[in-house]
């Protein structure tokens, strides 16, 4: 597989679910120097700010969302002592308990992997144009509806 | 005339539409766009003036002095809510 395509697979915004095992393998296969892998998996919970949530939908800005995830991966590779990073986010309808977002960071040692993994998810929440609609008994709510 | 993409809650201010068209004169800047939006959609304008909604031009966050041309890809972005 061409390097460019493989790198493209490390940053994705997709409708379908992802396999954590497959994505983990994708990182492991990047280098035999990797000795520590940290992962953050975000899943859909059934409550938010005191109300029940029955399901949710994520909307993204096609193009810009991918661009921002790519920037996050590139900055993580530049600013932390890590070997590889993968950043995935789903869009569309998501049921309670399903996967939403996955960050996997491979490094020689655990400390750098943990630090970079936390930075990636924090940065994703700050700069990536993705929005969440929650379905609740009180009606449909865009999260941050009153920004 | 420029087309402005809308996301998330912002669509509720324009009858559910994901795009609005705004007439702008040549040499307009983002600030002129914000003023026009405020006139046509006061709630949207208020959020823009409070900087709770930001403008992106060609998929980068823009400033009020950013110059606009008709071919620009313009969007209004409410606060992000990605992650879990």
CATH architectural group of chain A: Alpha-Beta Complex
Count of folded domains of chain A? 1
Number of domains of chain B: 1
Spatial strand arrangement across the major sheet of chain B: 2-1-5-3-4
Give me the Rg of chain B, rounded.
12 Å
What overall form of chain B do the CA principal axes indicate?
A: globular
Shape of chain A: elongated
In terms of DSSP E residues, the strand content of chain A is 35-45%
The poorly predicted ranges of chain B are: none
Spell out the key features of this protein.
heterodimer; A: 147 residues; alpha+beta; Aldehyde Oxidoreductase, domain 3; 4-stranded mixed beta sheet; 4-stranded antiparallel beta sheet; 4 helices; elongated; B: 84 residues; Ubiquitin-like (UB roll); 5-stranded mixed beta sheet; 23% helix; globular
Question: What would your notes on this structure say?
Answer:
The complex is a heterodimer of chains A (147) and B (84). Chain A has 147 residues and is α+β, with helices and mostly antiparallel strands. Chain A has four helices and ten strands. Chain A has one domain: Aldehyde Oxidoreductase, domain 3. In chain A, the strands form three sheets. Chain A has a four-stranded mixed beta sheet, sandwiched between helices. The radius of gyration of chain A is 16 Å and the shape is elongated. Chain A starts with a helix and ends in a 5-residue tail after the last strand. The model of chain A has no long low-confidence stretch (mean pLDDT 94). In chain B, strands 2-1-5-3-4 form a five-stranded mixed beta sheet, with helices on one face. In chain B, strand 3 and strand 4 form a beta hairpin. Chain B starts with a strand and ends in a 7-residue tail after the last strand. By secondary structure, chain B is of the alpha+beta class. At the A-B interface, strand 5, helix 3, helix 4 and strand 9 of A face loops of B.
